[in-house]
Amino acid sequence: MNGFTKLSVVAVCALAGASTTVLAQDAAPPTPEKLAQQATELRQGLLKLVSWSFGPVGDMLKNKTPFDAAVVQKSAGRIHELATMLPDAFQTDTRKFQVKTRAKENIWTNLADFSSKADDLQKAAAALGDAAKGGDKAATMLAARSVGKACSGCHDNYREN
Known about the structure:
Elements: H1 3-25, H2 32-61, H3 69-89, H4 106-109, H5 111-134, H6 137-158
């Protein structure tokens, strides 16, 4: 074996040993606090994806970018799929934990209403996709505003500003 190969073998073995140590440390079940933090991070990541997906459509609404029905269809499909995940992502009640979140406590006391707002977003996203398929800019932008209203309907009730 040449020097580089020996060094490579030593490095791989060292990394394998270090990763085994890390895995062994993580073998203990997560604490309730850790689970609450993970649930919060999951929710925030999901909502960031919804926002990112609507971004190109929002830019079209503000006339920052030209209308592109294909882009709107893609965004609508993403939002629709992501919205189906929202009720599941909020199943873990994190009210009694110290997590950094803008979620209002009433999400968990009104989970049925919160879930219906997610359903409203799904429906609005589906309607947006249908409008974009037709290629009519005015109809599509009207449907895009409905998606924005669905977002606001939830934010107004369930998100701190």
